[in-house]
Amino acid sequence: MLLAVSSITEFISNFFGTIRWSDAFAAFFLLIAIIDPIGNMPMVIQVRDKGGKIHPTRVCIFSLLIFLVFLMLGDLLLTIFQLEIEYFAIAGGAVIMLLSLEMILDITIFQTTELGNESSDLIPLAFPMFAGPGAFTAMLSMHAKFSILSLLMSVLMCIIVLYIVLRGTNWLTEHLGPVSMYIVRKFFGVIAFAISIQLIVGNLVTVFA
What pTM did the predictor assign? Predict the structure, then answer.
């Protein structure tokens, strides 16, 4: 028993010892700025107010799985489907733009059925809101500089922060009240709209350059 515990402890120690924590934290700060769980909270509330059922654990699991698949197989998947990352980013930017227009104009673009409500954790929350094209592009660029283990640890840290923020969504809405949340939703709707334009236009320039 003691030998098994010792072996496990040694394995964990060796595993964490191989991670360059300076790289992991550098990648974490970049990814968390792109994921922006706090800034995206009004969009999460928008989905919930339309009847979407939000489960923080499921959102985080889906986001983690998407990140892991793209981290390990991103280049291969893009090659298989004959896609450039720029086109992927344009598509994700278009989805974010539609969500932001709902927030700004108080209109309904995404029609949610009962089945759609159950799938809100995956689309649009896990993808493209959190594990989206912006984060994928950043990971592809960092892949050439940082090790897989460092990037993996940065993703895990991002998921932990995302879970904490999602768990606090109900608390925030209860304490801010409907009027304050309406103002916040409008403000961040404009921010999200600007981000979507940046994603679309920036990548269109790259495509047609």
Answer: 0.65
